[in-house]
Design a protein that fits this description.
The two termini are 36 Å apart. Helix 7 runs parallel beside helix 9. It contains ten helices and no strands. The radius of gyration is 18 Å and the shape is globular. It is mostly helical.
Length: 207
């Protein structure tokens, strides 16, 4: 049910997503095996689907429940909590709550930096989203520093055509172009990103 709900959400069928995610949540809540981390993730997905479906009051109630459960994961492994707070930060990013998004994405990034279990792309993606939150908050200097860190990690630990690396470089190119103080670097990086996209996705999807 959870997988079906996620699939409906990706396809834009939010009411169906909400229905399936609610049923999945009920099954988890009545299970003899309590998994706070999995239940928190499910609540975050449900809140996202409810908000997309226009159920704002219900989404806020679900999000409150997720936050309460999140407090119980303090003793979870760093990578587990990092994934949870990243999901929560991205939900706030979708809601244009830049301050909350920055808070949780910053925590996720801090946990991933010291975790031995994280995959490099996870930290790169969290830093990319954190940079977006910081930029929307008006902290362009901090946002540039964050995305530069993401790109530096991507370039040393990910293949040249890894999607997470290409996305991070694209965000950095756009940020630099809009800043106006690194036009040559932005132009070179943008050309590199376009070539990488052509190689990975083909000419049609490169623009």
């Amino acid at each position: 049910l959870e997988a079906i709900g996620r699939a409906y959400g990706r396809q834009g069928y939010y009411a169906r997503a909400v229905d399936n995610l609610k049923r999945a949540l009920q099954l988890r809540q009545h299970s003899s095996q309590v998994d706070s981390a999995a239940q928190t993730t499910l609540l975050i997905e449900l809140a996202k689907a409810q908000r997309s479906d226009g159920q704002l009051a219900a989404a806020n109630t679900t999000l409150d429940a997720a936050l309460q459960l999140l407090d119980r994961t303090e003793q979870q492994s760093g990578i587990t909590r990092a994934r949870l707070v990243a999901a929560l930060g991205r939900l706030y990013l979708d809601q244009s709550d830049w301050r909350s998004a920055e808070k949780y994405l910053s925590e996720s990034a801090a946990l991933l930096r010291v975790s031995k279990d994280q995959e490099p792309f996870q930290l790169v993606e969290v830093l990319r989203d954190l940079s977006s939150a910081q930029l929307w908050k008006g902290n362009a200097v901090v946002a540039e520093k964050t995305i530069r860190e993401a790109v530096a990690i991507a370039r040393t630990r990910l293949p040249e055509l890894h999607p997470s690396r290409i996305l991070a470089e694209g965000v950095m190119a756009e940020l630099l172009a809009n800043s106006g103080h690194a036009n040559e670097e932005a132009a070179a990086l943008l050309e590199h990103v376009l070539q990488a996209r052509r190689s990975l996705y083909g000419e049609v999807n490169s623009d």
